[in-house]
Structure formats: structure tokens, C-alpha cells
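Sample 3 of the quickstart, ligand zinc ion:
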Amino acid sequence: MKEVKIEKCPFCGGEELIETRVASYGGAYLAPVTKGGLRSAVLFATVCRDCGSVVRTYCKEPEKLFPKKERRDC
Ligand SMILES: [Zn+2]
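Result:
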């Protein structure tokens, strides 16, 4: 997985970006739409402390969720 560095909020220019875990009761998950696929990943989000914008939403281990050999165009 590539490292992504976000230095500034693209919306307000704020520099205080906070890593958060996206969760609701029971959890929020990203799950690929595949036949019988039961893999899922917890979502994380980077939130700007100044304006509250969610700058980035991501899962930590995309390789596990979408193995390369199974990847196909939608
Ligand atoms: Zn901002």
C-alpha cells in the first residue's frame, strides 16, 4: 500500500489533520461486491480539525480486501 501524505486541507488550508476511525454502532465497513465475498475492512478517515471536512477516507489493507489476482474492471 502506498503512503499518502496530506499536509494541508484542500478546502480551507488547515494543517491540523486528524486520523480517525469511521465507526457507528456495529461499525462501518467497506466490502467488495463479489460473489460470496465476505471480506471487509474498517474504514479510516482523515478529518480537518479546522473545517471538519473529511479529506480522505480509506481502508488500511486494500491488498487484503481486493487481492490483485481478483481485481477486474467494473
Ligand atoms: Zn479544512
